[in-house]
Amino acid sequence: MTTAPELHVTSKLAANDRSVPAASPRIKLYKRRIAISHPDPEAAERLLAEALGAADRDALHGMLRQLVKASAVAQKPDESNLAFMVSMIRSIAPKDSIESMLISQMVSVHMAAMRSACRLACTADLMQQESVTRALTRLSRTFAAQVEALNRHRNSDERAITVTNLSVQDGGRAIVGNLTQHANVLVAEAGLEDARQGADR
Predict the structure, then answer these.
(1) For 76-85, how does the pLDDT look when each residue is reduced to its tens digit (9 = 90+)?
(2) Running DSSP on this structure, what letter comes out for residue 53?
(3) How many CB atoms lie within 10 A of CB 184?
(4) 167 and 117 housed in the same domain
(5) In this structure, are 75 and 116 located in the same domain?
(6) Cβ atoms < 10 Å from Cβ of 55
(7) Is residue 48 part of a domain?
């Protein structure tokens, strides 16, 4: 005889893979408070802050409050949804406050899109299907735009252009030194020098 697995127990996937960070502490929701389920409260806050990319304690608790509201089902916060959201944020690994906020929004939009997909599957009314389809389409486009924004933000420091060959005509001026172009802004690490002066040496 087989029994259904307990849904509230988080299984450790890829337990032998050292690149996978330790699981975040579970969050327990009570009527008027949020509690982090962990034997060491300070370690729990630190682990959650790392998972969510929170810079400090205020940022951590602010994000948790927002995620709790976004996890709601029928206006009631849901621990399973919240655990899923925290796990997804942790797996994307925000590196700064901008990424932390953007990834939280991405996860929230994903949740709303999946709720819309569920509604679409469960309704036979044509008018409701059209309305839910429009909402699902908008949410899916928003999610795709958020992924693109995250990629642009993460790659903004890596868009460097290196010039290896340079040709200067008579009367022209050249920039001598290391040049780097980031986000359409050209930065010169050395001054301008007349090309003819350089050629005369």
Answers:
(1) 999 999 999 9
(2) T
(3) 6
(4) no
(5) yes
(6) 12
(7) yes
Cβ neighbors of 114 (< 8 A, separation 6 or more) are none
Structural domain boundaries enclosing 34: 26-155
Q: Which two tokens stand for residue 88?
A: 């997804």
Largest pairwise CA distance in the chain = 91
Burial of 132 (0-12, 13-18, 19+ CB in 10 A): buried
CA distance 68 to 82: 6
Please state, in angstroms and rounded to a whole number, the distance separating the CA atoms of residues 135 and 143: 12
Please give the model's pTM, rounded to 2 decimal places: 0.65
Shared domain for 102 and 136, answered yes or no, is: yes
Number of domains in the chain: 2
Paired tokens of 16? 């032998």
One domain, residues 69 and 135 = yes
Q: Mind listing the pLDDT tens digit for each residue in 78-130? A: 999 999 999 999 999 999 999 999 999 999 999 999 999 999 999 999 999 99
